[in-house]
Structures are given as structure tokens and as C-alpha cells.
Records
---
Amino acid sequence: MKRFVIQAAVLVAAMSLIGCKHSEAPVQFHAQGQPATLSEWHVLAADGKRLRLNAGVEPYALNTALFSDYAHKLRTIWMPPGTKATYQADAAFDFPVGTIISKTFYYPRAGDGAVLRVAEQAGETRDGLDLTKVRMIETRLLVRRQTGWVALPYVWNEEQTQATLARAGDTVPLTMHRPDGSAKTSFAYMVPDENQCAGCHATNNTTRELHPIGPKARHLNRDDPWHPGQNQLARMVATNRLQGLPGEGVPHNARFDDPAAPLEARARAYLDVNCGHCHSQVGAADTSGLWLDAGTHDARRLGLCKPPVAAGQGTGDHMFDIVPGRPQDSILVYRMNSLDPGAMMPEVGRSTVHEEGVALVRDWISAWLGSCSSDGTHVALK
């Protein structure tokens, strides 16, 4: 009798698990249209207490991430079962039709209704997000359809139970400070509209096709935060989500905040992910002549003693993009440190200054040697 009761209990538990599994609808790829709510995709599920990832939705992390007003980000990729992304050394991986990439922007909560300016912690997103401790702002989807990539921004409600499509963008007023209450800042967090999404993700100024920015070898080549001891790219291969990964020579960007990494590697990684998708040989800012992507090594193209293409308030009355040893005279630092819409860089995606990023680029320029002559010639030290 006892044995029967135990077997029955096991059966009930098994049936309960099966029922729970079936109650969660699988990820739904929409080949066309613009679903009004994020829940229609079944990539993420939120009930006001926890944000969870659906089956097959895999989180990923970058070495150095794009700055977005100190927001934390939970990034995920879902690909149709049986499909794989194809490795590319320099460009974003070639993802199959049906791929859904998500990026959820959130902040740790402060006790006074504000949000906290703190660095992301290890394990912060290991089991989704504890919504009693964080405030979600938006989730952006990048969807690979037959005709190409489509960007869709969704804004979360106050209850953190649903996110609604915001094609025209949105503005979310926030107050942010450090845990000790210092560095208090009130600002308007800007959710980009569809055109602004395209402004960054159209990484080729000729074709104007949208592409992912983060899922590139140099950004993904790192330890996997959710599976300690495993390389993120190697694990993608092991789980049949990536093909073509070479055995060696995979590019790698530094972490901008890693004090053990060389200063130049950290600064170049920061400029690459924050600026390089526009400031490249083929990007939207190609005519500026200032190329900040990882593949550019010509010092002149990086801004050394290079005068701006167009003068104006964006220069701050400075003469050159980079003046060696003099960050205070360099246009690059001036624009990174500005909140003036006519001068700030990047032009969209931030309403605050990334103090740590500016300090890093200042240090990098301070280490350059030589000077600039009045005609823009670099004068090396003798």
C-alpha cells in the first residue's frame, strides 16, 4: 500500500510538471506585422514579481557594452529549433530567419522611488530578473524576417506585467543616484522611435539595412556569466547554436573597466561598441573621416590632428578631433562630455554623460605623444 501511494505521488508530480510545461506557450515568431505587446512573442514572461526567459531563449553578454544612461541590460537570443548562426570574424553573425534578439533595459531600485547608479553584479540575471528589486524600462526586439531585420521597441507598464509597442518612442522621467545618495541626477530616459533604431542599426550607409551590433565575435568572445568556466562562443557551438567558429584567431575586445587590460585596448573597445557602428568606413558617419571601429588602425582616421569636416557648435571651438596629450583640446572628448543636442555624441541613446567612459578616453588621449601644427600635421616628439 505504501509503495502504491509513493508511486501515485510521483505520477501526480510528473503530471503536474507536464501541465506546467504545456501551460507556457512556446516562442512565437511573427513573420510579419508589429504585435502590439511583447507578450505576443512569448520570449519573456513577467508577472510583476519576476521576469523569466522562455525555453530556448539564451542570455548573452558583451565584453564592453554600449552606454545607455547607466541602465543594466538583459540580452537574449532565440533561434528556431534546428537552426544555427554562422560565424563571421568582423561583422555580426549571420543569424537565420526567425531569430529574435531581445534587450531589456532596467535599473536596480532605490528605496526612495529612484533608481540606482551601480555596476551590474555577477549573477544578477541568472534566473531572469527579480522585479521587486529592479525597475524595467523597455525591451527592444530585433527580429530577422525574410526581408531583413526589423527593430521593435516595447515599453513596460508600472506594474511590470506587460510591455507595449512604442513605435514613436517614449520618454520616461527618472531620478538616479548612487547607493549612498550622492550623484543625484534627474533626467528623461529616451526610448528610441523606429527611425532612431534604424539610425544605429543601419550599419552600412549604402544599403541602409538593419543589422545587430552586439552579437559579433569580438564582443561575445568572453567567459559565459551563466556557465562559469565556459567560453561563451564555445558554448554556443556545443549547444548547436553556432557554426564555423575557428579554433584560433577569434578577435577579442577588452572590457573597458578592466584595470588589468592595456589602456589603449580598453579605450578602443569602448569607442568601437559605442561609436564604431556609425563611425566606420561604411557607417552613417563615413563622410566625417573619423572612423572609430575596431578595424581602423590609421591614427589620422582615429582623429589624430584631424580637423572636423564641418565646423560649428559640435567642435566647441576646438581645432582637431584628437590633440595628443591634450584631451581638453580634443573634439572627441568635448562631444562625449556634452549634453547639448547640437554637440553631443552619440546623438541618441543617452541623456546623461558617461563619466567613466569620458575619463577613459581622456586618459587614452593623454598618453598620446607629440603635438598638432596649425595645418593639422602631427609633430612627433624628438
---
Amino acid sequence: SQVVWRADGGADAANPNPTSIQAYTSLAYAPDPTIPIRWNAFAGVTLQAPDQSRPFDRYGVKVNWQRIAPDYAQFLSDANVISGGTGAPYSRDKFVFEANAH
């Protein structure tokens, strides 16, 4: 993660919790084909200490993408048939959007 903006421009070294925006990202790959989630990537931004009277408050947004293994997608389609569903092919790509506050 990296702070990409500070309200004070970095001038107030005495403030341990300045109002700032932090960006972060990650990418992971599982080379073992038996792992259900082969790829996982996410990126997000966090607004830290938006109100200096509450320096530990944080608000953020995050986007997460996952690609599941082909065998796991087939397993999910088969499980759907057994459960009375259509057994339609299961999409390997999944997106998750998150908004959070701490």
C-alpha cells in the first residue's frame, strides 16, 4: 500500500494520522491446478482520517477479481445439476465490489 495524497502535503510531520488517501493492490496465482481459485487480484483506495477529530476513521472502496480453475467450474455445474438446476456452464471469472468503513 502507498499513501498517494495527504491533505497537509506532508508538511505536518508531528501528525501521526493526517487526512490522506492510500492505494493498494495485489495479484496472486496458484500454480497447483487442484486449487479452486487460480487467480486473485484486487485494488482499492482508502480515505484515512477524513475528520481530524476522529483520526482513526477510514472509508474505502475495493474491486476484487477471481478466476476459478476449469475443474472447479465443472464441479459447480455438476453440483447444480444434482441439486435440480440446469447445469449451465459456470463462469470462471467473478468480480466483487466492496465499500467499507472502519
---
Amino acid sequence: MTNKLIASREALENFEFITINGKVEFNDVNNVVKIAYYYSKAVRAGVNLALRGVNLNDAVKSLYKIIPYAFYAETAYKQALTLLGNGGSKVEVRRRWFACRGNKSDKGNRGIRFHVEDDHVLVKVKDPWGKWVVGRAYFGKNYLLLLRELEELSSEREEGYGAVISFKDGVKIHLQVPLWLYLKYFSTPKMQGYGFVAGFDLNSDRLNVVVIDRQGRVVTTRTYWYLEVTRPGYPMEKARTLRLSALSQSLKFLTRIGVDYVVFEDLFVIKRRSFTKNKSANRKISKFAKKQMLIHGGIKALRLGFNVILVNPKGTTSSDNHERVMRLRGFDRHMASAYLIALRGLEVIKNN
């Protein structure tokens, strides 16, 4: 069985690439820091341009005066647009980094390039005020075959890759690898199951899973708790680790009981978060990176050989049907949501 991802167009755009990270040592790190300084400056200026509704071409011309390389300027403006989309009009650019968008017609990437050696990756970064800054990147041997194929595909203009250079905890390079290529090297084959469908309800303090058969009958339910992450002052990175660990545990459990389809809410069709009158609940919602967890869970499920379905969440959290499921089955509201998500996924399977 070939695993696949069924989702809205908006969602599929978020599953085109996966980022792999490596440490990099540059021959002239000062020049690289200089690029990052002016790139960050360009992003800040780009936010102001975006607030005024300046189009891409005019924005690039303006930002070129700050960082005189069109591909950096273009990427900086697109980054500014993304920041505005995520945070409204109040955007702060604190950390220094720089990025260059990928394009297969540019042999992968114009500004940040790589070449795979025996035990490391040679990295070349375009200096807008000079030539190229060269460095050595270390991703780990398990990534070298993947990167070698990506290099070949890029040279043949069949694939592109985005790239980011960051400076938190040392100098790092982040390459956006096509998801299909990543799965080719890192998927784990799974035996075909019984056609069971698992619905997931992702929450800030727990993960609920309901498994149903092809007739919609409940096979089993699971709740994975991580209540401590919602306490005030709890480290965000540690909270993220616990949530993703719960996702991994749940998916590994599903490989053993005959599940073939994993179903999540398609959060990418929701334009804004729903807040409540409860300040404590709102704090949990605002600090919970639910889309990030969804992407991680979807990719992890694909790696493990599941089919992944993202369904419209409308009515799965608050509706007459939701209330009826809670009453008839004795589920709490989160388990009822997971059950309805599973049923909605089953509808997608039957219609495909």
C-alpha cells in the first residue's frame, strides 16, 4: 500500500518540504554575520512596506538598497509578509538570520548552495558585497545520500530547496528538502492493517485518539496527558518536546493494532483562532503551536506508513452532533471530537 496525504490545497502547501538542520563552520564568519544583520534589517523594513500594501517587485527594489542581492531581498519581503500573517501588525524581528528561497530553475538555490563531500557538505553563501563565503556543514551520515540526490536533482533543474542560516547555539544551516525525497530515505515500511481509522484531537494539555473500523464502530480509545505543560512559566521548548513525544507514542501504538488511516483536523482552512472568555484557557491556546504539532504528526505518520487525511474541523468541537455523541457514548468533549474526526475521515475514504 502506497501511503498518501489527502488534504485541502492550503494544507498541502505546508507539507511540500521538511527542514533538516546541520552545524556549519564558515571560513569567514564575520561576513556571514554581516549578511544576517542587513537581512534582518531588510525584513524589518519589509514589514513596513507590507503594511502599506507595496507589491513584491517594488518592495524588492526598495529592499535592494539595504541588502543588494535580489534573491535575499525577495525572500526578506516574503518573510515579512509571513510574519504579518502570523502576528498581525505588531511584529518584532529580534534574532539575526538570513534565508534564500529555492527554485528549481535556479539549480536549487541562487544564494545558498551546497555540494556533498565524503563526510561533510560544502556550503557556499553569496555575499552581496563580494563573492562567496565558503563553509563546511555537518548533517550526519544518514542525510548524505538524501542530500547527494537533492544536489543531482537541483543541477538538473528538477527540484529546488530553500535555505536558512541561523545563529542560535552556534552557526546552523537549515535546508528545506522536498517531502517526497525525505520519505524515500526515512520511511519505515508498515504491514497493511485491517483498514482501521484513527481520529486525533490535538489539545494544549492532552492528545485524544479514537480508532474505528470501516463500519464506524469504536475499536479503542486513548488519551495521552501532558498537563504540566500548561502551567505558567513552563518552558515552551520542553512543552513542545512532551507534546511531540505523545504524538510519537500514539502513532507507534497504532502501528500494532491494524490502523491504516490517520485523521487530523485541517487547521489550514481556519483563518483565526477561537478564544474564550476564560483568560487561563486563552493563555493555553495562544502558547499552543497546534499547526506545528499537526505538521509533525502528519509527517511522522507518513514516515510510519500510514495514509494521512486532514478533514474540515467545522462541527467537530461544538455542534448538535458533538453534543449527541457525548451523550450517547459517554465521551468527554475531546474524545467526542476525536471520534467525529475519525468518522469524517472514513467518509473521505469511502468517497475516494
---
Amino acid sequence: MSWLSKVRNSLGSLAKRDTPDNLWMKCPGCGEMLFAKEYEANLSVCPRCDHHGRISATARFEVLLDPGYTVLATPKVPENPLGFRDTKKYSDRLKAARAANPYPDALTNAAGTVEGIEAVIGVQDFAFMGGSMGMAVGAAFVAGVERAIAQNCAYVIVTAAGGARMQEGILSLMQMPKTTVAIRRLANAGLPYIVIITDPTTGGVTASYAMLGDVQIAEPGALIGFAGQRVIQDTIREKLPEGFQRAEYLHAHGMVDMVVHRKDLKATLASLLSYLERKEVA
């Protein structure tokens, strides 16, 4: 081995030791390499193409709520009620998802204030089994609504889901009417229900509580729909327009009320709460 090759190899091994694997990341939108800390500091939004990345429930609470919020306990429900098993047991899949996430299921509630205005916020985390809606999600949604009614404040839900959880079969689909009834109870109490739709929100979640808000807010570029685009095209035998099922298209066609950048979400939410609850910002 030549002297030059030895120097090159030693420099290469040194670079590998001194450079963390997570120092850089590739933007899912434009493909540009981004400095990971810069990306996180920008609320996981690409500073070049403005692509809104998916964020955790904890990060979402920190974006929307004032410091000092309280994460609420997730209601307990029967696990694997159908004894479902595919390549592995559903209960084992739940254990793996819980080991990789800070909360016990896909929907978590927190109580706090948004620029001084009291609210209960529920957040679906796509990292937990695709944010899928099962019995635990339905129970957490109802618990969030009940807490909002008890505190006489709004309930805000941040959606991110691939739809109903197939491992719970018909029991997952029963969460659609269950959550709809809870929303009616909130309305009867004269309290606002606001939905923030993030990427992706699809299936039974879109067909129920994600589209029943007093106000529908969507993040830029969010995928929003019931069935997949290919399924719809094959059914109606027509080519769908550009950007179909994206937040901007749905806003233009009246399905959502506004598309709001992540950095502006908190201020927008505070303004809506102040107006809908007829409360002054503290």
C-alpha cells in the first residue's frame, strides 16, 4: 500500500468517527440535503422548498401549547380483542410500537393554554402504527372531549392517520360513530371543535372526526382523502387533476377552511379560540 493510500484511509476513518450519522438529512420534498439541527429548529419544515415533515406528538404539543401543559392519561381498552394475528400477534405489534414511542397509542391528549386561552388538544402520531384508529384512539378522543366539557373549553384535534386499524376489524370502524356522538356532545355544550389536518389524513379518520370541525385547518401539502387516488381513478375511469387530495386543492374546493404554515398555527389557533369562545387573550 502506498503512502498516499495510507493517509487517505486514515483520514476516511477519522471522518467516520467524528461525523454523526444523523448530522444531515434528505428533504422528502425537494431531495436537498439539510443540516438536521437547522431542519428541527425550523419546526421540521424544509427551509428550501417549505415541505412540512411529520412530527411527533410531543413536538406538536410544544408547537401549539404554552409551556406548562399537562399530558393526559390514555384510557385503557382491551388489547387484541379479536385475537388477531398475521405474520405476528397484534399484541406483539402493539408492544413494538409502544417501545418505539413515548405514548401508549396513536392519540394522546394534553390540557393547557394556547397564548393564554384554555384548550384541550389531541394529537395523532403517524409514527404509532400509522396513526391508525382503533379502540384506544376512540376512547382517547372521547376522553379529550369530556375533559374539554369539564373545563368549559374547546377541543382541538390534530389528525394524522392511515385510517382504521385493520387488526381490530369492525371494532375500529365503530369508532367513527362513537367520535361523532362525542362531537355532538361538545356542540350541545356550546364549545368549539377545531380540526388541524396534517399529512397524511386518510380513510375512516377523514370519513369521521377529521372533517366535522367548526373550523378545518390544514398544513401545506397535507394528503387528505378517503380512498387512494389510484382506487378512485380505477373506479371512475378518469384521470384526476394535479394536486388532487392535497390541502391546497381541498381548500380551493371548499373542503377545508384555511391552509396555514406550521409556524403560524399557534397564532391562528389562538385567534380562532378567542373568537369562538368569546374570550380575551390573557
